[in-house]
Write a structure and sequence with these properties.
Layout: H1 2-6, H2 11-28, H3 47-55, E1 64-71, H4 79-89, E2 96-98, E3 104-111, H5 116-131, E4 139-143, H6 145-155, H7 159-179, H8 186-209, H9 216-245, H10 251-278, H11 286-316, H12 340-350, H13 352-366, H14 388-399, E5 408-412, H15 416-424, E6 429-438, E7 441-448, H16 455-468, E8 474-477, H17 479-513, H18 517-542, H19 554-613, H20 621-653
Antiparallel strand pairs: 1-3, 1-4, 2-3, 5-7, 5-8, 6-7
């Protein structure tokens, strides 16, 4: 297989044919499309989900509702003019309700659009309608669930292209800086870019074939992951290829050795990440399950292109591709030089115990923020830039009951009048009315006294569910109830999925390293990295960035990406250390591994951190938070854990680091005796 990839007569075919096939698949298939379902982001089996499913069975159901708000800052609202305008502009039966203070009025408008795009168009048309010919001094805005959904859709309008361009730009700049070549960076960037587009097509088509849900953010996160992981694999291969060119006259022979030495850590890394991603199939959230499968497909594509297309593509060109720093046969290999990383390793080797203690103390201090973390974002907190729906909702709460813009809904197959009476008598409910009937289902809309996201509103939902428990097939849904169920589902997902991820990563490392102690220590280091990055991120979020909480999905996804991707760099370092230890012993093997991989792993880590930080180009808090946590974690793992902590532990333990494997022998065939250097 290696001879096929690097053969003089076959390399160009191996490089060209997959690229042509990928282009054909991208053009012929394209990304699969689907209309979002009402329960795509709701936890399976939750009360709010069951209520949403009942609402879908109503014969003349409205997909959602919008709330038109007219308000004045001074004086009283010209109510007669507003009502006359509403009679002309809004649908029959829509009633204008004034506030008690006389400064505002609202009208609840059904939105019957089926898809997210149609919903956004209808909300935009409604906004244009109500702002036309509005009386002087009066502000007309649209809020409510439909408006929030429309503003959320606007965040993702053109988002995939913006995210792709930003990601590609960051990768290109960092590759130029890394290679210091005006030409070389084009090869890996082209290969990874094609892999990204193919991954998007194959992933969405796979999801469609299995009937799984995905949303606007799925392809965006997929692209970030494919670019990040694919470029990391490319950096590792090219670094080894450059080194082998210094000891081989033939570039084909050099690439053959580079591929053989790279395939094991890359496959181990990709397998670990794929298995970790597939654990998301156990999530209660449909779109989270879809994200896991989509990203697993993406990693398979990225690793395949890095190990097949990239080696063939590079070897087609001569050594000149590295210009102006062209490697020549006879030059000293990087592992034999007194580079920065060798000097760092020698310093760590002098006092490994002190470095282990100091690094762990630093990570422990950084992890203190974990004890303060709260999860759960209100609708108003989901956007980095406050849209009209949120601004109007805040203004509405000044003149109306806090829950008027987004009523809590009760769906039931029981007697509607009895359910309505029970809802009205429940503490925390300001008012309630039957809004729809049909197919044996009744919908009751309840306006809560408390503001959304408060403990009082949550208690009102709990009280409603308790009061309605005697009624068969009766469920409480709406934004507040859904937020509570999502938080409970996220907690359940963490309890189930996090231990499984750790077990899979540990098992993969045991098989790769044929050791027990080293895998346990490596997993412990990535856990420490995750804790420290989440702790630091919490202080960052609640301090300079002004967030009140983490999105409920951030801890799980951040843990997955940091553990699965963070262990990659340990795999790259430790597999090289084991290779070097065969001839040089454990101590010198680790120092040589750090020397050989220090530069490339640091470049890969900085690149991966920057790529995930690109998620911040979308004005959505959950993606900004996810990108920040992963960015901080990857930098910590790259610059502190992999550079200092792991080498220090290995140097302190010596041959025991590989227990229970047979001790590697030194250069002269003697087992190496180690102490605290």
């Amino acid at each position: 297989m290696t001879s096929l990839l690097t053969g003089r007569r076959t390399a160009w075919l191996v490089a060209l044919v997959p690229l042509l096939l990928a282009g054909a698949l991208i053009a012929l298939l394209g990304e699969a499309e689907r209309d979002p379902g009402p329960t795509d982001t709701l936890p399976a089996g939750a009360d709010s989900t069951l209520g949403t499913e009942l609402a879908a069975e109503l014969p003349e159901r409205d997909a959602s509702v919008a709330v038109v708000l007219w308000s004045v800052e001074e004086g009283r609202l010209p109510l007669a003019e507003i009502r006359a305008q509403a009679d002309q502009q809004l649908a029959d039966g829509v009633r204008v309700v004034p506030s008690r203070d006389g400064t505002a009025a609202i009208a609840v408008v059904p939105v019957v659009a089926g898809t997210a795009t149609e919903n956004a168009d209808e909300v935009e048309e409604l906004r244009s309608t109500v702002t036309a010919d509005v009386p002087d001094g009066v502000s007309a805005q649209v809020t409510g669930p439909a408006a929030v959904e429309a503003d959320l859709a606007a965040v993702f309008e053109g988002a995939d292209l913006r995210l792709l361009l930003a990601t590609a730009t960051v990768v290109a700049v960092l590759l130029v800086i890394t290679y210091r070549s005006p030409v070389l960076w084009l090869v890996p960037l082209t290969v990874v870019a094609v892999a990204d587009r193919l991954a998007a097509v194959l992933a969405t088509q796979t999801l469609a074939a299995f009937g799984m849900a995905w949303d606007e953010s799925t392809v965006g996160i997929l692209s970030v992951l494919v670019f990040g992981a694919g470029t990391d694999y490319a950096l590792l291969l090219i670094s080894r290829y450059r080194d082998e060119l210094r000891s081989h006259a033939s570039r084909f022979d050099a690439m053959a050795v580079a591929v053989r030495r790279t395939v094991e850590p890359v496959l181990a890394s990709a397998t670990t990440v794929v298995l970790g991603l597939l654990t998301l199939l156990l999530s209660l959230i449909p779109t989270t399950r879809g994200l896991g499968l989509a990203c697993a497909v993406g990693i398979v594509v990225a690793a395949t292109f890095a190990l097949v297309v990239l080696p063939a593509g590079l070897v087609v060109f001569g050594r000149w591709i590295f210009w102006p720093r062209v490697p020549h046969e006879g030059e000293p290999a990087l592992v034999d030089t007194r580079s920065l990383w060798r000097r760092v390793g020698d310093r760590v080797a002098q006092h490994p115990t002190a470095f282990v203690t100091g690094t762990l103390a630093l990570l422990a201090v950084m992890s203190l923020g974990l004890f303060r973390i709260e999860t759960g974002l209100d609708q108003a907190d989901q956007f980095l830039d406050e849209p009209e729906a949120i601004t109007a909702s805040k203004r509405l709460a000044e003149s109306f009951p806090a829950g008027a813009a987004d009523p809590t809904r009760v769906l039931t197959r029981a007697d509607g009048r009895s359910v309505l009476s029970t809802v009205e008598d429940t503490r925390g409910v300001q008012s309630a009315r039957i809004t729809q009937r049909g197919n044996g289902i009744t919908q009751v809309d309840a306006v809560l006294d408390a503001a959304p996201g408060t403990s009082a509103s949550e208690q009102a939902v709990v009280d409603l569910r308790t009061a309605l428990a005697p009624y068969d097939d009766t469920h409480v849904t709406g934004s507040e109830a859904t937020s509570m169920d999502e938080r409970d589902a996220a907690a359940r997902d963490r309890k189930v999925i996090l231990p499984l991820i750790l077990a899979l990563v540990l098992g993969a490392l045991v098989l790769l390293l044929r050791s027990l102690l080293a895998p346990v220590l490596l997993v412990a280091t990535v856990l420490a990295t995750f804790s420290a990055s989440l702790g630091v991120s919490w202080w960052l979020f609640t301090g300079p960035l002004g967030f009140d909480a983490l999105d409920v999905g951030v801890p799980l996804l951040a843990f997955l990406f940091l553990v699965a991707l963070g262990v990659d760099y340990n795999i790259f370092l430790v597999t090289r250390a084991r290779e070097e230890a065969v001839d040089h012993g454990s101590r010198e093997g680790m120092l040589r591994a750090l020397t050989a991989t220090g530069g490339v792993i640091t470049s890969a880590g900085v690149l991966l951190a920057a790529v995930f930080a690109v998620l911040g180009v979308l004005p959505l808090v959950v993606l900004a938070q996810l990108g920040a946590v992963i960015c901080i974690g990857v930098l910590l793992d790259t610059l502190v854990v992999r550079t200092v902590l792991v080498p220090a532990m290995a140097l302190r333990l010596g041959d025991r680091f590989w227990w229970p494997s047979r001790q590697p022998e030194g250069a002269r065939g003697r087992p190496l005796v180690t102490s605290d250097y």
